[in-house]
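quick q for whoever's on today - can somebody do inverse folding on this one?? i tried earlier but teh output was garbage lol. tokens:
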């Protein structure tokens, strides 16, 4: 039994230890899934996301109207207004979290602008700087529950039970959020924020903090000027008094599960929830599946569970069962930092991408020679395939019946192969999305079109000859024209 308290800051000694142990930016277990099934599940839908967003906003407006009406015309009738404000707060400070999350990944809507609008609105509602939290969440997916690397670990061990309970009020959490924003707005980014955010994005993060703090100050001044707390009850304070719902959902994701492992089946929880909770939480109860495949949008997570569920630990059958497991684990971990939930995961080999390996044949045949990568009929439209050649790795994409593209295989953000990503074709755009943090790259130019991708991929000449897709691996475009590159 041990009560060792580890340093969870991002700049402390645990970070260096995690890197030294190979726990940071590491390869994680991935289940096997048919590539065609995964491709289907990765498709985005503006219609579905618009329906769910409009419904959420409509409920929010109705709750706001009822809350306003409940205040009465002849004076404040607080007791009468409490239920309406409770609902309004939960939709504002609680349900906004799932919208923030899904739009932050860029997977809720097909349209990029719609994801950005909802993401920024939710950031404002939740007192989160958009850039800081985007990078923080990238890290969470890179180093999930790795101590010293992940800023989103809810319960450091040994667990303090009173803090675990107090967290549900969200008083301390929201106070920390707004004071940190004020600190960033006035004094600049703190050490943890600088560790997360690359240099080129830091200035933007500071201005976002100033904007959110400025808007909140405006609501405070408004309340003072009219001598009423009512403006703050509608804008600002719901982040605090409605935050319990965000905590209620968020705790189920990882609490009590294993730290410092490279298998999401061991550090993440899937919980079967009822349709109302699933709407409020946008299916994030399928959280193992989300961590395994962040490129699958929320509405396809139940189907993803159907496809890979037999390779995961059994899901918790209900929210109640999840909380019973969490309460038991936290109680044990308050007395023994090393206590773990006994978890059985199926012993399965995990996936490896189907690949084309052309070995050294190009060297044998000489410069300028073309090698066959695949027969046209063997690659479906929308399919991507890993190509290896003597130490180099690429991705072959079939964009349409007669358009094929070959680009570098590794994402320029971190060491992740793009062959597991989604090919997203929308109008003139044709982007390859990284399976880890949803960076996107234009497969026609190589340009990085979505953060955290910043540097371009190289593109290679590709041809179709006698029903075969061939290449000589020569550069296709002038990268100097694209600016930065890997
Ligand atoms: S590894 Fe982070 S977006 Fe690709």
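ok took a stab at it. sequence:
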């Amino acid at each position: 039994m041990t009560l060792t308290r580890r340093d969870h800051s991002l700049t402390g000694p645990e970070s260096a230890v995690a890197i030294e142990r190979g726990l940071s930016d590491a390869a994680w277990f991935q289940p096997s899934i048919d590539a065609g099934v995964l491709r289907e599940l990765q498709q985005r839908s503006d219609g579905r996301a618009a329906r769910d967003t409009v419904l959420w906003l409509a409920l929010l407006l109705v709750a706001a109207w009822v809350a306003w009406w409940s205040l009465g015309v002849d004076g404040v009738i607080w007791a009468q207004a409490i239920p309406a404000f409770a609902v309004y707060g939960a939709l504002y400070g609680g349900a906004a979290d799932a919208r923030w999350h899904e739009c932050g990944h860029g997977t809720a809507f097909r349209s990029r602008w719609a994801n950005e609008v909802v993401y920024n609105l939710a950031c404002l509602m939740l007192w989160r700087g958009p850039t800081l939290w985007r990078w923080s969440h990238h890290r969470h997916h890179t180093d999930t529950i790795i101590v010293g690397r992940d800023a989103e670990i809810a319960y450091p061990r040994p667990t303090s039970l009173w803090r675990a309970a107090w967290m549900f009020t969200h008083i301390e959490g929201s106070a920390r959020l707004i004071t940190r924003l004020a600190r960033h707005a006035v004094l600049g980014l703190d050490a943890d924020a600088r560790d997360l955010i690359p240099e080129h994005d830091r200035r933007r993060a500071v201005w976002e903090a100033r904007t959110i703090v400025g808007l909140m100050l405006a609501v405070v001044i408004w309340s003072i000027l009219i001598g009423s707390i009512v403006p703050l009850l509608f804008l600002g304070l719901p982040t605090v008094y409605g935050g319990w719902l965000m905590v209620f959902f968020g705790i189920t994701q990882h609490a009590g599960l294993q730290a410092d492992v490279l298998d999401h089946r061991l550090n993440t929880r899937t919980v079967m929830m009822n349709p109302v909770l699933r709407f409020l939480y946008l299916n994030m109860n399928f959280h193992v599946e989300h961590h395994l495949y962040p490129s699958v949008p929320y509405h396809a997570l139940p189907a993803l569970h159907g496809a890979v569920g037999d390779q995961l630990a059994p899901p918790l059958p209900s929210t109640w069962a999840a909380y019973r497991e969490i309460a038991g684990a936290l109680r044990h971990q308050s007395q023994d930092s090393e206590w773990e939930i006994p978890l059985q995961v199926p012993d399965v080999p995990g996936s490896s991408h189907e690949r084309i390996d052309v070995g050294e044949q190009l060297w044998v045949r000489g410069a300028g020679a073309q090698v066959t990568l695949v027969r046209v009929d063997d690659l479906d439209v929308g399919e991507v395939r890993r190509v290896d050649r003597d130490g180099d790795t690429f991705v072959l994409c079939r964009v349409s019946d007669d358009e094929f593209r070959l680009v570098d295989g590794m994402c320029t953000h971190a060491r992740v192969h793009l062959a597991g990503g989604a090919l997203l074709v929308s109008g003139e755009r044709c982007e390859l999305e990284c399976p880890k943090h949803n960076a996107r790259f234009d497969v026609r130019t190589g340009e990085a079109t979505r953060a955290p991708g910043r540097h371009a991929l190289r593109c290679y000449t590709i041809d179709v000859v006698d029903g075969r897709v061939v290449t000589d691996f020569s550069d296709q475009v002038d990268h100097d024209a694209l600016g930065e590159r890997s």
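fwiw The chain is about 45% helix and 10% strand. also Residues 480-486 have pLDDT under 50 and may be disordered. so keep that in mind when u check it
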